[in-house]
Design brief:
The structure is a homodimer of 474-residue chains.
Chain A (H helix, E strand, L loop, with lengths): L2 H12 L4 E2 L2 H6 L14 E3 L4 H14 L3 E4 L16 E4 L6 E5 L4 E4 L5 H9 L3 E2 L12 H7 L6 H4 L6 E7 L5 E5 L11 H5 L8 E8 L1 E2 L3 E9 L2 H13 L6 E6 H11 L9 E9 L1 H17 L4 E4 L3 H12 L1 H8 L2 E4 L9 H14 L3 E7 L4 E8 L4 H20 L18 H20 L15 H4 L9
Parallel strand pairs in A: 2-4, 3-4
Antiparallel strand pairs in A: 1-2, 5-6, 6-10, 7-11, 8-9, 8-10, 12-14, 12-15, 13-14, 13-17, 16-18, 17-18
Organism (chains A, B): Thermoactinomyces mirandus
Keywords (chains A, B): FAD, Flavoprotein, Oxidoreductase
InterPro entries (chains A, B): FAD-bd_oxidored_4_C, FAD-bd_PCMH, FAD-bd_PCMH-like_sf, FAD-bd_PCMH_sub2, FAD-linked_Oxase-like_C, FAD-linked_OxidoTrans_Type4, Oxid_FAD_bind_N, Vanillyl_alc_oxidase_C-sub2
């Protein structure tokens, strides 16, 4: 069928207004939050119902057109870049919270709901959706699920995957499946629900989700701790966990990051210090205060230079602001900011930090490191300029070594950002040949024609490694 | 190759002593804990290393022989019955705890470790492996993982799947894969780790597992509450959760179950009451006591007839004994005890209990109901006699209606026991045709020749519905 006839068919499904082929729509959906990756889609559609998603998918299946589902595009692994063109399916119109079930402690949502709105809505019922993502003021829950998003409370509460109880999804052939439900226990057949979490839109298109909620913690308290040495900060992380304390947040920032944040936000960080930790505990007041006191003691024993415990809600927001503004601050500090996601067993955090420092010095590249220390999830972030090809080549080599170091320490190439295009070249190292073959066979089982977000996770060629300014398909 | 040559090859791999074709070995591995299902394997092997498992699997793959991996055989869905004969691979020799990592809060084990031994070993380090299975004095961790075992602490702590961080597994073609690791966060490729949990040995053979641990709760307290009406007991469950209390255990037993347990164990249960709840909370002492007091108040408001709070460790064990002995008591009370596993959203527990009562009366069958009320996970248990063919036919019809009722209430045909052979005929109702097709394609991706635990999960024919006394293959 001719391109114009297909477009006409898509218009019939979603309405002319919601099927766009103009340059503006195509340009704004040619990239996500990952620098250096861009590819143009042929058409951008905005479905409003599962039935519309199904009808669109059936056309795509018949015509063998790639389909890339997308929320707000905050992805950091180029997972939402339509590298083979085709249809970008945007879920901003499917943005309803369908039900908050207080008896079963669940919430059922459409994929386009903004994560922060979900938080606010359930908290109004004294309920709690723990995944606390850096991007949650913008990101959608559908994107969070597709990427298996992590965030700041992973250590105590786990990540998105721990809260997805049931899904409705459209398969590559247009079939609609429903998995799971409002159930604490369910072992009927394979766990397709959790398998779709983190599958980056390559296996199915999520059209509805039922999520687990917890009672909202009664109280929370936050503390910032500064150290004159990197090792002492890293050691504090280990000492806290070894003391059998599981704080809800345990964040790390190195001096480079602190300096950039201070320049950007001017919140009075002591930038002469080598590292800071942000610690938060939640739960019943007496318990929170006990844990805070114990963590304070541990940090003092490790010669922390300064400890600030938030006395008021305002104090707390100020401390957390340092962490929340990190990505924005880093992004504005240089022309090109490449944020990575190497993750290791938490006891290997000191070794990993030393390794990153050594590598960045050896390649003469500027790397600021921050991240979720309690999860072993670091974000070494390179401050560079994509116009400097020589430096960019060194950056790429440095990151390859950082990924290697993470794997050697028993870690992973991506803790929470996903593989997308950016990390696909490193998958073989992590999974081995047998593992890659298995992943390929699974992909084929779901999507034999490679229509769903093609080119992601599975590395195809050197050419795709950087698809910067890749032209649109005709 | 001839059967005797294949047996010789298997002997070469594991040693003659650990490759058995005698009638005793074959008989004792022809059934698991599920009544009415039996089928003889050709050979029983006991590997000691992953490399032996791999070598065995390569022979099976070459010769297209079914392989059923098995721990202690406590399964209640006939998942370990070798319905197509072949090789039963028993993991009792791979029973080592390889590492307790106190810094990363993980334990790495071989699959044959007895669950109770794992509990004891980590608790000696003040650590805690939450899944608390009814069968854990006998069951193995490999079996727990293969079945996605649930247990008594699901409401607060989740089930086995929430604690599996990494796996080593042998695929149907003999490939060895390693997934995950000592990582809180990991989104590198599909979540094969959790997908293998609950896959009942149909996708891969698990040879090693890394499990997540928590700090051991400082304190726990237990309470038994009796009610003169079923509805009040069911309402108490809802009222507790609605009050935003998440106890670690919230068990239910009806009068029929109480009577059987009392006859068996003689522990002084007030058998004139209609229902009992067993409630337990763990955590810091002050918090546990606060929750217990609040739950006591809720039960009093619902006119509980008697409340016993354990004052000593002995009291606690006595209360929990009522629950722990349930299966043994029911199993001995009649010739044939069929224990089911219908599970619903927890707010639907009252509706489900009413439905079970109505169905059992209509079919004139004796059903005792107990289970994990906090999880919506009920075990309606039929007391029957397999020699009474007329009654058995009514039992089968009653259970079919019970499964239907669970699905109508948004539930599942199996909360924690798995599908196996017993529930395979009901899978289509839960998944729909599109879902079943997808599960089939996934199975093919892992195991194209259907060598791994064939006949399970996927229902083939009426004949297989009861494979009682199925003869051994030649």
């Amino acid at each position: 069928m001719s391109a114009s006839k297909i477009i006409h068919e898509l218009e019939q499904i979603v309405g002319k207004k919601y099927c766009r082929t103009d340059q503006e729509a195509r340009l704004t959906h040619s990239y996500d939050a990952t620098p250096l990756f861009q590819a143009w889609p042929h058409v951008v559609v905005y479905p409003q119902t599962t039935e519309q998603v199904q009808a669109l998918m059936k056309v795509a299946h018949r015509e063998k057109i790639p389909v890339i589902s997308r929320g707000s595009g905050t992805n950091l692994g180029a997972s939402a870049v339509p590298v083979q063109g085709g249809i970008v399916m945007v879920f901003t119109r499917m943005n309803k919270i369908l039900e908050i079930d207080e008896k079963n402690l669940t919430v059922t949502v459409q994929p386009g709901v903004i994560t922060r709105q979900l938080h606010d809505a359930v908290e109004a019922h004294s309920l709690f959706y723990p995944p606390d993502l850096g991007s949650m003021a913008i990101s959608t829950i559908g994107g969070n699920i597709a990427q298996g998003a992590g965030g700041l409370r992973g250590l105590k509460y786990g990540t998105t995957t721990d809260y997805v109880l049931g899904l409705e999804a459209v398969l590559a052939n247009g079939d609609i499946i429903r998995t799971g439900g409002k159930l604490t226990k369910n072992v009927s057949g394979y766990d397709v629900t959790r398998f779709l979490v983190g599958s980056e839109g390559t296996l199915a298109i999520i059209t509805e989700a039922t999520l687990k909620l917890l009672p909202k913690p009664a109280f929370q308290q936050t503390m910032a701790v500064y150290f004159s040495g990197l090792d002492a900060a890293a050691e504090a992380v280990s000492a806290i966990i070894s003391a059998r304390i599981i704080p809800c947040t345990l964040e790390f920032m190195d001096q480079g990051t602190m300096k950039v944040v201070e320049e950007y936000a001017g919140i009075g960080l002591p930038v002469d210090q080598k590292a800071m930790l942000i610690l938060e505990q939640d739960g019943p007041k007496e318990l929170v205060e006990k844990d805070l006191a114990q963590m304070e003691q541990i940090c003092q024993n490790l010669n922390a230079t300064k400890i600030e415990i938030a006395k008021t809600g305002k104090d707390r927001i100020k401390i957390l602001e340092a962490r929340r503004t990190t990505l924005s601050a880093l992004a504005r500090a240089t022309a090109t900011t490449i944020l990575e996601d190497a993750t290791v067993p938490r006891a290997s955090i000191p070794a990993m930090i030393r390794k990153i420092t050594e590598i960045s010095e050896r390649y003469n590249v500027r790397i600021c490191t921050f991240g979720h220390a309690g999860d072993g999830n670091l974000h070494p972030t390179c401050m560079t300029d994509s116009r400097n090809q020589d430096e960019l080549a060194r950056v790429e080599k440095a990151f390859a070594e950082i990924f290697n170091a993470a794997l050697e320490l028993g870690g992973t190439i991506t803790g929470e950002h996903g593989v997308g295009l950016a990390k696909a070249p490193y998958m073989k190292q992590q999974w081995g040949i047998a593992g890659i073959h298995l992943l390929n066979r699974i992909k084929e089982a779901f999507d034999p024609h490679h229509l769903l977000n093609p080119g992601k996770i599975f590395y195809q060629s050197e050419e795709e490694k950087t698809c910067q300014n890749r032209p649109a398909h005709p």
